[in-house]
Amino acid sequence: MRHIYDRVLEARQRLQGVIAHTPLSYAPVLSQLSVGEIYLKKENLQLTGAFKIRGAFNKIASLVESSKAESYKAGQIQGVIAASAGNHAQGVAYSARHFGIQSVIVMPEATPLLKVSATKALGAEVVLCGDNYDEAFERALQIAKERDLVFIHPFADELVIAGQGSIGLEIIEEKNDIDVVVVPIGGGGLLGGIGSVIKTLKPSVRVIGVVASGADAMKRSFVSGKIEKVESVRSIADGIAVRDVNADNFALLQQCVDEIVSVDDEEIANAILFLLEKQKLVVEGAGAASVASVLHKKFSFSQSDKIALLLSGGNIDITMLNVIIEKGLLKSNRKMKLEVVLVDKPGSLQGLTDILSKVGANIVQIEYDRTSVMLKYGDALVTMALETKGQEHKEQIRQSLKNYGYFFNEIN
User: Fold this and answer.
1) SS3 sequence of the chain
2) Is residue 76 scored above 70 in pLDDT?
3) How sure is the predictor about 71, in pLDDT bands with cuts at 50, 70 and 90?
4) What is the pTM for the complete model shown?
5) Residue 75 pLDDT exceeds 50
6) What is the mean pLDDT of residues 263-280?
């Protein structure tokens, strides 16, 4: 870990004047809800919208320094290539443009358009390939050989890890009495860099990693003490949806991490919604994972603990935002969806809506189906979405429908 820490100090010198020094801000509402003293490290406000620029710039700057030391011009580096779901892509593209170097980025085919467009706007050539990061990674390695490009790994590279570790320095410098640091995990480079700094400077600080439950190979490996594999990954937190565990990063996390927890997609969505409403922050799924771990009590801490949560990125796709908000509303009991069977006759629907009106449920969407082959003759199926005011209000709605003899199903 000390070696990584020394690399981090070097990285910070390279990053001076290039990256934004993002704030570590007290979060009063989250602190009150969680009964702890919570601070947010807002890397979603970084120049490219995420922390990844730190590691990418450090790596590419080092390549340029090496070429100059060998009396070459930076332009003689043929170019760089990376595989990324978006944030590393923008970091590499930005850094390559800074040094006048060609960049090629291979992205999974389902990468949000926002991230593809942003990467192209930074001058990169974008290649879409594969269903996930790991497939894009394999294609990037092939192109690197074919075109003599330097591959910039998003997390399994010491210089990239050192760049990300500069966040740990900033946290300790701004809040020297911090007790817990919570960091999202994809490939583990971010957590490895930050954890190495924290454990070198203040070994007593607890370092906690957070994975998405749909991409939890690193957690499984950490718990078992050996590398575990998963067949596939799936999560709205595309930035941390990494399938395979890198052996070197796993070994580093074993040294500097105290605990790894997981959060599911609904919990992540709830955290995104919370940050939008209560903190006025736009944060992507991976970036909200740390907040989700606190909101849903995934690890223990005391009321006096000072906890830093890393918001790793804010590059959320607008077309996905509606889906994520929907999940968050359902998870926080502010919306419910129902299927109700009615007798198909005049006044039946009005009777149902009158009951919902009495209990203060606002109908935001409704469909009336009388032709489904699944229905009995003379019945109709009403599907509706309701705005609700919490768990008690939802139970009141359920009870009212039962009291009036309605048969209904809740849709998740």
Assistant:
1) CHHHHHHHHHHHHHHCCCCCCCCEEECHHHHHHHCCEEEEEEHHHCCCCECHHHHHHHHHHHHHHHHHHCCCCHHHCCCEEEECCCHHHHHHHHHHHHHCCCEEEEECCCCCHHHHHHHHHCCCEEEECCCCHHHHHHHHHHHHHHHCCEECCCCCCHHHHHHHHHHHHHHHHHCCCCCEEEEECCCCHHHHHHHHHHHHHCCCCEEEEEEEHHHCHHHHHHHHCCCCCCCCCCCCCHHHCCCCCCHHHHHHHHHHCCEEEEECHHHHHHHHHHHHHHCCCCCCHHHHHHHHHHHCCCCCCCCCCEEEEEECECCCCHHHHHHHHHHHHHHCCCEEEEEEEEECCCCHHHHHHHHHHHCCCEEEEEEEECCCCCCCCCEEEEEEEEECCCHHHHHHHHHHHHHCCCEEEEEC
2) no
3) very low
4) 0.86
5) no
6) 92
